[in-house]
Amino acid sequence: MANSIEINAPIEQEGTKAVVRNWLKQIGDHVKEGDALVELETDKVTQEIAAPCDGILSEIAMTDGDDATPGATLGRMIVPGNGVAVEATIAPTQVQSDPATRAKTHYSPAVRQAAREYGIDPAALTGSGKDGRVTRADMEHARESDTLMASPPLSHSGSAEPGNVQLESPASSVPMDGRARIVPHSTMRLSIAKHMAQSLATAPQVTAVFEADFTAIMRHREIHKEPMKALGINLSYTAYFLVASVAAMKVVPEVNSQWHDESLEIFEDVNIGVGIALGEKGLVAPVIRQAQTLSLEKIAGRLQDLTNRARSNSLKGEELKGGTFTISNHGVSGSLLASPIIINQPQSAILGVGKLEKRVVVREVDGVDAIQIRPMAYVSLTIDHRSLDGHQTNSWLTEFVRTLENWPQ
User: Fold this and answer.
1) In whole angstroms, how far apart are CA 288 and each of 2, 20, 252, 344, 361?
2) How far apart are CA 273 and CA 316, in angstroms?
C-alpha cells in the first residue's frame, strides 16, 4: 500500500517570518529524495525545501504568498509501501469555486487584505503580475476606478452637488491622475524596516568621521591582485577594511561588544558582517567568522565566496548569524558619507566607508608643507553610546586609518 507523508516548513528558520514563494514541482510529479520542492522566503534568505524521500507530490497545501509558520504543512507526498508501486497520475486537489476560497488559495496576503478592505473579488480582475497574477496594484486601480464611477458629478462651477461632496482619504496613495504604482513590501524589506526602526529606538547612536588615505593599500593591491587572481581570488578593498578593523579591535576591544543592562559583553572572536546590496530586494550581511585568525588572502577568498552566493540567493541561514561587528562599504554605490549608518543590533558599532576619490591634500615633505593629490575616502564609526564613548570611538578610527595608511608593501 502507499503511505502519505507531510512536507513541512523547518522548525528552525532564519528570520522572523517565512512566506511561500514558488513551487518547483507540480502535483503528480515524481520526485527523488533531496529534490527541491518549494521555495520559502524569509526576511533574510530564500531557502529550498527538499523532498524527504522518493515519491509523488500529491497535494499543495500552501501557495505563493502564504505565510509558513515553523512546522506548517506545505504539502503532502505519496510514497510506495511494502513494495507496491504508486500510480503516476494523481488528480490535483479540487479548488472550490467560492471566491473567498479562491482568494485564499491563489492570491498573495496583500491581495487578500485588499479584497477584504475594498470588497473587490480579485477573480474578476485581469492580473498584471507574473503569469497573469493579480497584484496589490491591480486591486488599488480597481478600487480607484470604482471610486471614480461612484463619485457625484461636478456642477458647472466645478464643485460637487451640495451635501454630496466627497473628500479624498488622507491615506490614499494613488493620485487621481493615476500616475503612481503600488509596490507591495517584500518580506526582506519589511524586516529591514522593522530592524532599523528598532535599532534607533533601542540605542543612542553617535557617528564620528575620519578621512583615510588609500595610497598604501592601492600600491599593495596593485602588486598582489594578479597573483591572487591566478588563485581565483578577487582582492577587493573591503578585505583590507576587515584586516584594519581587526587591528583596531586590539586597541579598543569594547567596539566588538554587546550591551546588556547589567554588563558589557566583549567578544574574543571578531565576527565581521559585510553588507551586500541585492538590488531592489534589500541587503544582507553575511559573517566572516574569527577574522582575527585570517590572513588578507583568506579574508578576500571568503568575502568573494559570500558575495557571489548572496547575489545568487544561495547563502545558508547560519552564515548570517553571529556577527559582532558590521562593515557598510556604501561608497561603492557613490556616496561620500552616510550618517548615521544604523547599527546592526545587538552589536555596538558599525563601520562605514565612503566613495574613494582623488582629493587635494596637504602633506609635510622634508619639513615643508606640500600640496598633493591623494586617493581619499571618508570612514565613519557609528556607536551605541551606551557601550562606547567618543574617545574610544576616535581611538578605534585612529588605529583603523593608521593601519590602512601604513600598510607594508
Assistant:
1) 47, 29, 20, 15, 34
2) 14
Q: Domains of the chain (ranges plus CATH)?
A: 3-79 (2.40.50.100), 188-405 (3.30.559.10)
Q: How far apart are CA 79 and CA 65, in angstroms?
A: 27
Q: How many residues are given for the chain?
A: 409
Return the bridge partners of 287, or none: 273
330-345 mean pLDDT:
93
Q: Which residue has the cell 547563502?
A: 315
Identify which of 59, 51, 8, 10 has the alpha carbon closest to the alpha carbon of residue 33.
51
Q: Is 248 left (phi over 0), alpha (psi -120 to 50) or beta?
A: alpha
pLDDT at 210 over 90: yes
pLDDT interval class at 4 (50, 70, 90) = confident
Q: Has residue 14 got a pLDDT over 60?
A: no
CB distance 285 to 276 below 8 Å: yes
Measured in whole angstroms, the distance separating CA 31 from the mean position of its chain's CA atoms is: 31
Q: Which amino acid is at 219?
A: R
Residue 90 has pLDDT above 60, yes or no: no
Cβ neighbours around 76 below 10 Å, total: 19
The separation between CA 71 and the C-alpha centre of its own chain, rounded to angstroms, equals 23
Angle at 87 between CA 85 and CA 91, to 5 degrees: 150
pLDDT at 102: 38
Which residues, listed in sequence order, are joined to residue 282 by a DSSP beta bridge? Answer: none
CA pseudo-torsion sign 341, 344, 346, 349? negative
Residues β-bridged to residue 38: 23, 49
Q: Cell triple for residue 228?
A: 591572487
Contact 140, 182 (CB under 8 A): yes
Of 119, 75, 129, 72, which is closest to residue 99 (Cα–Cα)? 119
Q: What's residue 282's pLDDT?
A: 80
Judged by average pLDDT, the poorest of 51-55, 85-89, 290-294 is 85-89
Distance separating alpha carbons of residues 302 and 273, to the nearest angstrom: 12
